[in-house]
Amino acid sequence: MVRGSDILIALIIILFPPAGVAILTGCSCDLLIAIGLTILGYLPGHLYGFYILWKKMRAEELYGDHGYVYLGNGEFVPRDELPPQLQQPYYGSTAA
């Protein structure tokens, strides 16, 4: 189902595709891809922006509002199926 916020983001993508991608994904590699595609041509930037918006709308339909997490590269997963996080090393500590 299309929401009002999706329409607003679509209008932002029409005006400046990297801004819409930044709203959806934050500062990620997807933003750099959108900037690069927009520099190469305005149409490729639009297509990529609408692709990311479509993936978000599809994730909302499948997992519900706020029931998903964005992993990058257009991949949304349900919150309960997050991949395990690796534990950070203990820098400066002597305990194992």
Automatic annotation (TrEMBL):
The chain crosses the membrane at residues 7-25, 31-54. Its main location: membrane. The keyword Transmembrane applies. It is found in: Membrane. Keywords: Membrane, Transmembrane, Transmembrane helix. It holds the Pfam family Pmp3. It comes from the Eukaryota. InterPro entries: PMP3. Belongs to the UPF0057 (PMP3) family. This is Uncharacterized protein. The lineage of its organism: Eukaryota, Fungi, Dikarya, Basidiomycota, Agaricomycotina.
